[in-house]
Structures are given as C-alpha cells and as structure tokens.
Specification:
By secondary structure, this protein is of the alpha/beta class. Helices cover about 35% and strands about 15% of the residues. A 6-stranded mixed β-sheet has the order 2-1-3-4-5-6, covered by helices on one side.
Length: about 210
C-alpha cells in the first residue's frame, strides 16, 4: 500500500531529503498575497516568489471582507494579516488572487446553504452582491463562473480599501493593489487593469529576472 500523506512527511524528515540551510531567508516581504486555500495551488511555486519576499494569507476564495459599517473587521484573521503587512512590514503590493474552478466561489454562485457548511455560507456573504450581479446576466455556467472569479476580485479590492490605512497608503502612492485570477491548470495569470477593472492576460516582462521569459 502507498504511504499516506503523514507517512510521506515523516519519511522526508530523514535529513538527507529535507533541503536545509544554516539560517532562514531574510524576512523582507514586499508583497501581501491573498489567495485561496485550494490544494492544487502553491503561490510560491506557481508564481515564482522568492522566499522571504511575500506574506501569504490563504483563505477560501481569496475573499477580502473588509470592515463593516461600525469599522469592525468582518474577518479578524484577514484584518490582522492586512494590518501587519501594511503597517508593520510596509509592503508595496497587495495581490488578491482568485482562481479558476474554485470550490468556494462555486458554492457561493450555487447559493449552497447546508447545515454542514454553515460557516462557509456565512463567510461567503461579502460576495452575495457579486453573485446577484453575475446571475442577472443570462449565460452558460462557465461564463458565470468566470464572471464570479473576476467580480469577487473587484469586490475584494474594494473591501481592502475599507481599511483606512490601506486607502491612505494607496493614496500616498506607497501601496499598489492588484487583482488577479490564476488558471488552476496552467498557472497563467489574468490581471485586472486598475483603471478599467477589466481583466487580461498578464503582460510578460522580458530581459530581467530568471525563467523562461528571459
Ligand atoms: Zn478556491
């Protein structure tokens, strides 16, 4: 029988299999990356972020809920991550990255409301206006899913700006907000134009940095 996941992790602890360095990488994050918990995604490997350069907050559907009308965080874990990234680590970028074939966004779109996923239903409430807007347009399931991915990112970027320190840092030009949808299969990124709010494939940069684009 194949070893189960815990067994494989224990086997890898055999020192020769663990990539070891004498000290940890420098913790100098320039980015807060907010992405889904989906098990097929690995932000560091998929996108190619150097160790120590990005804080990573993973949460179902990459939902950013922001502050409520009373100025209280709707999702405390998110609020703490955003606050730490912006006010303490002074990151220059926040990326909100939804992805294709997302179970969380799918559940929101279907309007799932089951006793065994009641927390998830409540958690997805910030996306209900997006769901409504998407379903107003007749279309195929795939088109709706796509519109949900992009719409949820737009909503999350808006919700990020409910944190006054985010809005202020952005206004001062010290912080940029980025909206992405990553293809779960190909890992190619579709990126939101901050002016038009439309998504298009990320423009590849050539000439700097490593990788196949060089
Ligand atoms: Zn997902």
């Amino acid at each position: 029988m194949d070893a189960d996941i815990m067994q494989k992790i224990r086997q890898r602890q055999a020192l020769a299999l663990v990539p070891r360095t004498d000290k940890p990488a420098k913790h100098q994050p320039e980015m807060l990356y907010i992405g889904c918990i989906d098990a097929r995604l690995d932000p560091v490997a998929d996108i190619g972020i150097e160790q120590g350069k990005a804080l990573i907050h993973r949460t179902i559907g990459a939902v950013v809920a922001g502050l409520d009308e009373q100025g209280k965080p709707r999702h405390l874990s998110e609020a703490a991550s955003v606050e730490f990234a912006v006010n303490v680590m002074k990151v220059k970028h926040i990326v909100v990255s939804a992805h294709t074939n997302c179970g969380g966004l799918g559940a929101c779109l279907r309007g799932d409301n089951k006793p065994e996923t009641s927390h998830l239903t409540e958690y997805l409430e910030p996306l209900l206006p997006v769901r409504e807007a998407v379903l107003e347009h007749p279309g195929e399931e795939e088109a709706h899913a796509h519109a949900m991915e992009e719409g949820s990112v737009r909503q999350s970027i808006d919700n990020l700006r409910t944190y006054p320190f985010v809005a202020e840092a952005e206004k001062r030009g010290e912080l940029q907000l980025h909206g992405w949808v990553i293809d779960t299969a190909t890992k190619l990124i579709s990126e939101m134009n901050p002016q038009t709010l439309q998504f298009k494939p990320m423009a590849a940069a050539r000439g700097t940095g490593a990788g196949p684009g060089r």
